[in-house]
Amino acid sequence: MATNNPQDKLDPSKLSFGKKLLGWLKQLLFMLVLLTVFSAALDIWRSRDIPKTDLPNIQAMTLQGEKIDLLAMSHEQPVLLYFWGSWCPVCSFVSPAVNVIAGSYPVVSVAMTSGPDEKMQQYIQHKGYDFAVVNDPRGEIAQQWAMQVTPTLMVIKDGEPAFYTSGFTSLPGIWWRMLLA
């Protein structure tokens, strides 16, 4: 027997599964939008000291023996610049995604204050990382870039930063930034 009691319409146990699912999806979408806005605002705030023009060039030898010229590379195609540390817990979640990206795009990573070359070589070999690693044992390169937060990822295109983010970043987030650059 159906009732026309308005209270029945408000009772969550009387709602159909489809309506419940729609409500959950709306809440999830709202949370994703809120998280995206918060993350973008945080990136803008954190990047206030990062150089936007006249970027310092990274001309160095990687631990793999490859000569790097970041700005020259960025004129050929977008380059993912990744500041990280072996001591950084969040980097241990982001580095595998960077490793995947390195299969399709050029990656230059700077290992900040992570120890001597031999120790870093063992670390990247143990982790199975294939991306280019420039060791910065005293943090000199990081200081030139005003880098204070790890992990930090920048997409450099034509000698200028196209995208910047710090903290946890997912593989899809990195892909989108590389594709849009």
Approximate helicity band = 40-55%
Strand order of the largest sheet: 5-4-3-6-7
Low-confidence stretches: none
Annotation field: number of helices: 7
| Rg over C-alpha atoms, rounded to the nearest angstrom | 22 Å
Mean pLDDT: 86
Give a brief description.
With 181 residues, the protein is α/β, with parallel strands linked by helices.
Describe the protein's topology.
Blueprint: H1 6-10, H2 17-46, E1 59-61, E2 67-69, H3 70-74, E3 79-84, H4 91-101, E4 107-112, H5 117-127, E5 132-136, H6 140-144, E6 152-157, E7 160-166, H7 171-180
Parallel strand pairs: 3-4, 4-5
Antiparallel strand pairs: 1-2, 3-6, 6-7
Structure, explained:
This protein is of the alpha/beta class and 181 residues long. The chain is built from 7 helices and 7 strands. The protein has helices at residues 6-10, 17-46, 70-74, 91-101, 117-127, 140-144, 171-180; strands at residues 59-61, 67-69, 79-84, 107-112, 132-136, 152-157, 160-166. A hairpin with a 2-residue loop joins strand 6 (152-157) and strand 7 (160-166). The radius of gyration is 22 Å and the shape is elongated. The N and C termini lie far apart (61 Å). The mean pLDDT is 86.
